[in-house]
Amino acid sequence: MYVTMETVNILGAKVSMLGISESVDRIMEMMDEGGTHAVFTPNSEIIMNAYKDKEFMELINSADLLTADGIGLVYASRIVGKPIPERAAGFDIAMALIKRMAQEGKSLFLFGSKPNTAERAADILVENNHGLKIAGCRNGYFKPEETDAIVDEINASGADVCFVCLGSPAQEKWINANRDRLNCSVLMGLGGSLDAITGDMPRAPEWWCKHGLEWLYRLSKQPSRIGRMMALPKFGFTVLLNGKKFPQ
């Protein structure tokens, strides 16, 4: 059955109201539809950046699926009167998607992070998901003139899905610039997911995630993120002041 996708307008971003399981169902459908689909997984910081940058807002809204990665987006949806039922973090969607891909014999390309991280992540994913096919790996350190070779490498791999883990906004811009040249059914922007898989940058324990405090846990582990975290209260105040001005 085709997944119906309703969205909520948060400061101009058309964020999907699908939960984790429904998002996976929709991505699996994309693999049968033909063409190359883009899936972006923005948090409050990314939406705030897009709010201040019209061109970037248009770019993220060009995605076929824009999921609510941060708990801030869930709270924002309540403020504008169209509540998202659950946070659909990119990492959680990716892990659930991998299980489905393994069951159905789909293949995955991992692109991003430091040298050798994608390969280590691939080993862990294959060990934990019997039947998963890793089509290829490529680190995220490259010069602009290497982009054509990377596109050729991904295409030659025959991958059904490519996780693009370059951080925002680099990953969204890379996907947007190259999606018409790529043969993958799905391109997903997933930030630091490869580092989370390998344990180089562990995710917050379940309790912290469940209570919407993953940001605080990460700040306790990386105090240098304090500057970036200031975007969270700015986002909250902006939604309170302007969120209801955007038509739903």
Secondary-structure blueprint of this entry?
Elements: E1 7-10, E2 13-16, H1 20-33, E3 37-40, H2 44-51, H3 54-60, E4 65-66, H4 71-79, H5 90-104, E5 107-112, H6 117-128, E6 133-138, H7 147-157, E7 161-165, H8 170-178, E8 186-189, H9 193-198, H10 206-210, H11 214-221, H12 226-229, H13 231-242
The biggest sheet amounts to: 6 strands, parallel
Would you identify the CATH architecture? 3-Layer(aba) Sandwich
| Low confidence ranges | none
User: What is the fold-level CATH name, i.e. the topology?
Assistant: Rossmann fold
Concise structural overview:
This protein is α/β, with parallel strands linked by helices. 48% of the residues lie in helices and 14% in strands.
Describe this structure as you would to a colleague.
The structure is a single chain. The chain has helices at residues 20-33, 44-51, 54-60, 71-79, 90-104, 117-128, 147-157, 170-178, 193-198, 206-210, 214-221, 226-229, 231-242, and strands at 7-10, 13-16, 37-40, 65-66, 107-112, 133-138, 161-165, 186-189. With 248 residues, it is α/β, with parallel strands linked by helices. It has one domain (7-241): AF0625-like (Rossmann fold, 3-Layer(aba) Sandwich). A six-stranded parallel beta sheet has the order 4-3-8-7-5-6, sandwiched between helices. The protein has a two-stranded antiparallel sheet with strand order 1-2. α6 (117-128) links the parallel β5 (107-112) and β6. The longest helix is centred in the middle third of the chain and has 15 residues, at 90-104.
